[in-house]
Amino acid sequence: MAQKNSSIENREQNKATARILTVLSSFASNIREFGISELSQHLGMTKNMVYRAIKTLEEQDYVIRDPGGQRYQLGFRVLELQNTFSPEPTFRTLCAPAMQQLHELTGETVSLTVRAQDYTVFIDGIETRQPGVWRLQIGALRPLHVNTTGHVMLAFLEDAEIEAYIRRHLDDVPAKDDKPLDAELLWQDLHKIRQDGYATSVRPGALPMLSLALPIWDAENFLHGAMSVGGPNERFGPRFDLLLPQILTIINVLCQRTRLYSANAAGSEITL
Amino acid sequence: MKATKKPKRPAINSSAVHVFDILRSVSDGAEPAGVTDISRRLSLTGSTVFRALTTLEASGYLSRYRNLPQFELGMMPYLLNRAFLNQFELNAASRPFLQQLAQETGETVSLNVRLGWYSLRLSGIYGSRDIYHRDRLGELALLHQSLAGRAILAFLPEDTLPELMLFLKEQLGEAPSADEWSDLQKTMQIARESGVHAQALQMSPGFSAIAIPVRDQTGAAIACITVNGPVYPSNNIRAQLEIRDGLERIIAATPERFVSPFAHIPPDKMRLQIPRTKAVGTPSISNVDS
After folding, report:
1. Which chain B residue is nearest to residue A32, measuring alpha carbons?
2. Using CA atoms, how far apart are residues A266 and A182, in angstroms rounded to an integer?
3. How far is CA A22 from CA A42, B25, B56, B88, in A?
């Protein structure tokens, strides 16, 4: 009987420990201070649970009271949780769990893209196992105006930068299957992306492909890059509206993490 | 019948204390660790360690190393570390100045701040050179043990040094010897006179680092910019100081913005275990160029 009680207690203790770690994880964002009620609301835990978690964290200096004494901020003890022998996260490693989640949710091809001056570069991706695969070409360079992720990269630049890009590429000879740059259509699309916060497009052809591209933000409201998910319109299209809220939730959680980092001048990699 | 009062549960969760000990043990290891290593290191039972590792893995604090029953730090500690550094307003405000310095020198430029009796690397920008000095953000060192820390120390009020000595002696039990203390005081004096603190890097012959204090409106150092690179040509220092002056003007305009988010914690309360680094030994304290 005593053994049974002890086992129940251990399971309970681990649940409590998991709650403590969840409370601490809330501070891994650019929100600097939290009150007990805010955390309770944010995490869906009772105020008592949050209070007990905070007390344990405060006792060990993983959180401390703010100068006002009523709210809590991240404590200096977290600096001990570093390992100088292992590499820091990169943009790719930060995005990997979200890419996997998007792939599992949609079953479609997911890709990660960064900007290199006037081009998009695919740096990572997961291809669908279903028929009708959007082929991922890691390292492929595409001008910003020819694909959905490129449009996302362009949309969140300054207007003057977009105008300059258009001037540079207006007379480009389009590659096979690409259309020439139409400034008016491009601007319409960019305004819509700014309004919606993401880009969608259907690429015509024998098998029309539906693509959704989402911006991945940095600490200073620049883009680290974009993540896209796409597949045959006849397969992905009918499920799109149903999946979109869940896709946006995954990307929002990812951006809470990527917003802790500043993109470098090229906007392509997380700096040290 | 009188209701029996439920015994009050303690506010602190003792099992979580073990979990954090285990997390720190993994973070301090040069290699990924398994249940046996950790239970030996911390004298805990295998089942306690196993449960803790499972909880830490599920919460993103640890991850499995190459699908083996061994663990290394997961993503969450790195994210917390970054969020910690972002609490300092100086982090974002200094970035354009560090970028300018990195561009002009081609070298790695870092910003360190004071945190209690430690210097903390807050921000950094790599220069353009192919071979560069790699610094880690969030790195800690006792103030007197790092180039940046000594540059900060040199520009703090005079009674700071004896207070640090007291902390080292009473809290850490590792006060420097009389000779080391005398050397440190001399180094401080040279840094004060020259306005900067420079050091030859023992680990990289021919390379040096320079530390430039960043002061508030009272003249006290609140941070320090370091530039690592080949032995420093003195005629460049003026340009570096001008960039630093630009940052100091920003600080002077709204000093309250740049008060450390840990200014309300007495320095003696901040006792930190410094994570091990790859480098062995402490570089010598020598001013090669000032």
Report:
1. B87
2. 26
3. 11, 20, 10, 23
Tokens for B13, please give them: 């969760």
Helix orientation angle between A91-106 and A240-258, rounded to the nearest 10 degrees: 160
Q: Of chain A residues 68-97, which have a CB less than 8 A from chain B?
A: 73-74, 76-86, 88-89, 93-94, 97
Q: From CA B62, how far away is CA B19, in angstroms rounded?
A: 11
pLDDT digits (tens, 9 = 90+) for B29-45: 888 999 999 999 999 99
- CB nearest to A83's CB, from B99, B135, B275: B275
- CA distances to A98, A103, A211, B95, B130 from A107, rounded to whole Å, are 13, 5, 13, 41, 41
Tokens standing for residue B37: 């290593």
Residues in B touching A263 (Cβ below 8 Å): none
What is the DSSP-derived secondary structure letter of residue A32?
-
Element (H, E) at A120: strand A119-126
Q: Taking a contact as any Cβ pair under 8 Å apart, which residues of chain A between 179 and 238 contact chain B? A: 219-220
Closest-CA distance, B234 to chain A, in angstroms, reads: 28
Three-class SS state of A231: strand
pLDDT at A199: 97
CA distances for B29 relative to B9, B33, B65, angstroms: 34, 7, 13
| Residue from B23, B47, B75, B80 to probe the interface with A (highest A Cβ count within 10 Å) | B80
Nearest to B163 by CA among B179, B143, B178: B143
B60-74, B248-262, B263-277: segment of lowest average pLDDT = B263-277
> Could you please report the per-residue DSSP string of B24-63?
HHHHT-SS-B-HHHHHHHHT--HHHHHHHHHHHHHTTSEE
A56 to B13: CB separation less than 8 angstroms, yes or no: yes
CA distances from A110 to A150, B17, B265 (A): 15, 40, 46
Give the nearest partner residue to A17 out of B55, B136, B261, using CB atoms: B55
Q: In this complex, do B83 and A220 lie within 8 Å of one another by their Cβ atoms?
A: no
List strands edge to edge, sheet with A33-34. A33-34, A72-74, A63-65
The pLDDT tens digits of the residues spanning A148-203 come to 999 999 999 999 999 999 999 988 888 877 788 899 999 999 999 999 999 999 98
ipTM rounded to 2 decimals: 0.86
**Polymer length of chain A:** 272
Contact assessment for residue A16 and residue B14, using Cβ atoms and an 8 Å cutoff: no
- Amino acid identity of residue B253, one-letter, is A
Distances (CA, A) of B159 to A243, B172, B288: 63, 19, 27
Residues of A in contact with B13 (CB under 8 A): 13, 16-17, 20, 52-53, 56
Chain-centroid distance of CA B75 in Å reads 20
Question: Residue B83: its chain A contacts at CB < 8 A?
Answer: 27-30, 74, 260
How far, in whole angstroms, is CA B30 from its chain's centroid?
A: 19
Q: What three-state secondary structure class fits B121?
A: strand
Tens-digit pLDDT profile for residues B176-235: 888 888 888 888 888 888 888 877 666 666 667 889 999 998 999 999 999 876 655 555
Q: Tens digit of pLDDT for each residue in A1-29?
A: 444 555 554 555 588 899 999 999 999 99
